[in-house]
Amino acid sequence: MRNNAVAGLSVAIIRANTVAVSRSFGYADLETERSVNELTVFKVASLGKPIFAHIVLSLAQQGKIDIDRPLYLYSGEEVVNDDPRSKVITARMVLSHTTGLPNFGKQGALKFETEPGTKFLYSGHGYHYLQRIIEKITGKNLDLLAQEIVFEPLSMRDSSYIWRDSYRTTISSSYDPSGKRYEVKQEAEAGNAAWSLYTTLNDYAKFVTHIMRTSKEPGSVASRMLISNVHVARGVEWGFGWGIQSTIPNPSFWHWGSIAGFRHYVVGYPDEKIGVIVLTNSEAAFKMVDDVMALSIGGSYPSYDWF
Question: Cα separation of 95 and 193, whole Å?
Fold first, then answer.
């Protein structure tokens, strides 16, 4: 952490589908020397995508959405105005990042970069579009759906897609590579499936453990999430919400999170019942995540080389 200017780090190691190690190091806030602990709240950005995918597939099991039916037919909303390709986008394409839409941050008007359904292109815009459709179908906002379908059943009491006043004393600050704190201009007043999740190490470990445990149940939501939909790169595929990578001895699922100084990495081996959650508050942390993995469970990770 000293070598890479990482202020705070939280790590959970799952063995036999149980959190065996939960450790935190360094500071949630350098200025006040407030320590990181297992209940420190992190902004985990894209780690909210697998939870949203779980919500969507749960609703599909309930018959409320068909993941292969064009989303346009549910709402009449075109994700890109006056482009006929908007009328073929499905939930399957969104959750596997094959809509052809770009990620957030792309300059200019939103437009298709590739033909829908043809190749992998990571897209926050696609997730936000599907979120709007889901909210219209159910009449409930994202955070309420998350509370009902994921957070409450798994006792993830400190997780939310929107800001809570209670986070003021537990939220971590975040830092650039020089150690300068990022200034927070505004917290998330409305949930966004692609980037606005607030959670803790303990809470997210519950979700990862749930995925590993239930992925072996035929027909479960987790088992569907881990079916590959598209090739991404050597050793990397994408399912629903999770990336899937070729690891030894068996494949593992994974995702990363990155926003305003926060950097996170998660891996789960369903067959071995082993997983690791790494949450950090420093932009330079990806330089040391491979060291954390080596010290925790070892292994080689195609996803880490790719992203």
Answer: 11
